[in-house]
Amino acid sequence: MTELSNLATVAEPRSAAAEAYRTLRANLQFAFLERPLRSLLVTSAGAEEDRSAVSANLAATIAQGGQRVVLVDCDLRQPRLHTLLGLSNERGLSSLALGDAEPYLQSTGLANLQLLAAGPLPANPLDVLLSGPVQAALAELREKFDVLVCDAPPVLAVADAAMLARGMDGVVLVFRAGRSKRDQAGKARALLAKAGANVLGAVLTNAKVDASFKGYYG
Q: How far apart are CA 74 and CA 72, in angstroms?
């Protein structure tokens, strides 16, 4: 049974947080007026910046807008999406490199949204992510779904996100107010740019809500 109550966009659709995600969805659509956004990578500079929560809520918001979305946990080191959604991690992305012929997709309980969990943690995460079976599966999912949303490890911790970003239409960086440092944000942006990533912008989490909006959004 999925834990959609963990997603503000589903549990509290009239909240300021849910509205912020809808604004983010709209901004991404505006950035791709000439061609549709088909693949998006969400990453952060460091750990503990609410990256996975942003990935899940953004994917849910896109799905609520009527597009078919597949959410993929590309963090083969410390995956969180299956825990966040209350789903299994016995099989997932890494299983494709171990012999699974097809991606093991799980229903999230939300229309238009499915999850491909990380799967068993491999000894060589980056090699698995760049392997033929995994890359072929990501390309296949991109064709089968309207939008592919990938949750990737922190940019400054490992090379995974920078390597994956090359094949994505766009990248969103997540920072947490009171935790993320300005120099780290700059380094993360520079690393992604060096890798040839199309960095669309950033999301700031844990920011204080303007008091003037609280009454309006209930």
A: 6
Which CATH number goes with the domain that contains 11?
3.40.50.300
What are the tens digits of pLDDT across the range 83-139?
A: 999 999 999 999 999 899 999 999 999 999 999 999 999 999 999 999 999 999 999
Do 118 and 94 touch, CB atoms closer than 8 A? yes
Domain of 29 in residue numbering reads as 4-217
Structural domain total, the chain:
1
Cβ burial 21-38 (10 Å sphere, 16+ → b, else e) = bbebbeebeeeeeeeebb
- Cα-trace Rg, the chain: 16
